[in-house]
Amino acid sequence: MTYCSYSFGFYSSSLLVSLVNKVTSRSGHGGWLSDNNLNNDRLDLFCWLLAGLSFINFFNYLFWSRWYCYNPSLVGRHAIPSDVKDSKVPMNDIETG
Predict the structure, then answer these.
(1) Whether the Cβ atoms of residue 38 and residue 26 lie closer than 8 Å to each other
(2) pTM of the model
(3) Alpha-carbon span 32 to 42, nearest angstrom
(4) DSSP character string of 49-76
(5) Helix/strand/coil for 41
(6) Extents of the domains making up the chain
(7) Average pLDDT, stretch 29-35?
(8) What are phi and psi of 26, to 5 degrees?
(9) What is the rounded end-to-end Cα distance, in angstroms, of the chain?
C-alpha cells in the first residue's frame, strides 16, 4: 500500500508541474519551470503556489477535524475492556483473544 501512495504522489507532482507549465507559458515564452536553468525559471512563484496549496490543505484538515468524534465502540477486538483494566488481576493472566 505504501508503494501505491508513493506512486500516486509522484504522478500527481508530475501532473502539477506539467499543468503549471501549460498554464503559465505564453506565446514565445516558457512556463515557470520550462528550462533546466534555475536562474531563468520562476521557481519562487512555484514555491509560493505550493505554499498556497498547503495552506488550503491545512484549512481542509481543520474543517474535517471539527466533524471528527471519537467512537469507543470501534475499538479493535483485541482491546482490553475497561472493566478488566480496572481489576486487580495481573494483565499477563488475561486472555484478550
Answers:
(1) no
(2) 0.63
(3) 5
(4) HHHHHHHHHHHHHHHHHTT----GGGS-
(5) coil
(6) 42-68
(7) 81
(8) -110, 170
(9) 27
